[in-house]
Amino acid sequence: MVPVQRRVSSRGSLMIAGQKIHIGNGHAGLTVDIHPTDATWRVYDHDHLLAEVPRTTSKPIARFKARKPEPPRQPAARMRDEC
Fold first, then answer.
1. How many angstroms separate the CA atoms of 71 and 80, rounded?
2. Is 32 helix (H, G, I), strand (E, B) or coil?
3. Distance between CA atoms of residues 67 and 72, nearest Å
4. What averages of pLDDT result for each successive group of 10 residues across the chain (83 residues)?
């Protein structure tokens, strides 16, 4: 199967095909490659295997690439009372 990309959340987890996989807080923010098989998910950071977990869902994979991070939001302008 084709490798899939996901970005690890700030809590150290990611979601693929409706299954949540916990990698660890130390990997927060990384974009990882996931190699799916019929029975497992293998999560890699470049060539380093981070986790191999059993596949508990049979849903199809909906997204194949990780989303780009959003640009930082500007703080809302505060209205000033003019006297």
1. 27
2. strand
3. 15
4. 89 94 92 93 94 93 79 61 52
